[in-house]
Design goal:
Layout: E1 6-12, H1 21-33, H2 43-63, E2 68-76, E3 82-91, H3 111-118, E4 121-127, E5 130-138
Antiparallel strand pairs: 1-2, 2-3, 3-5, 4-5
Length: 142
């Protein structure tokens, strides 16, 4: 990947079949495996990318009725790995994600809290008939 270049992958989940999150995560692992061995600068960064994607996909599957798509973009840093990666999930839901207060006694509802902690920044882009939730993850310092 040349400095300033960007790679983009899209993993679609529909429109006729709602595939399980595990299917999308397997496809994302295949995508990440196409990057050079040093591209993700260690297992922690790779696991953060996978965790954020899993949380966003799980929310889309749980809270929306229609098709879902996962987009991953890797921006080249001119070094052995990407400077940052953007994970985005587009779905047919109009409800917006909510970062709930952390309550250890509750078994669920912490996904966006986790995403917020891992993200350099994140946001939502409303679309006609849905939205895209995106998360920017910076590569760790070498």
């Amino acid at each position: 990947m040349a400095h300033g270049a960007e790679q983009h992958w899209r993993i679609a989940f529909g429109p006729d079949v709602k595939r399980p999150v595990t299917w999308g995560m397997a496809r994302l692992r295949e995508v990440l495996d196409t990057l050079p061995a040093t591209a993700l600068k260690g297992d922690r960064y790779r696991e953060n990318v996978l965790l954020v994607a899993c949380e966003l996909l799980a929310n889309a599957q749980r809270h929306t009725p229609g098709p879902t798509a996962l987009d991953v973009r890797a921006e080249d840093s001119g070094m052995p790995g990407p400077a940052r990666m953007t994970v985005a999930v587009t779905d047919s839901g109009t409800g917006m994600p909510v970062v709930r207060p952390w309550r250890p006694e509750q078994p669920n509802g912490h996904g966006m809290h986790i995403v917020q902690r891992l993200a350099q920044k994140w946001g939502v882009e409303p679309l006609p008939g849905g939205k895209t939730v995106w998360v920017l993850l910076s590569a760790p310092e070498s």
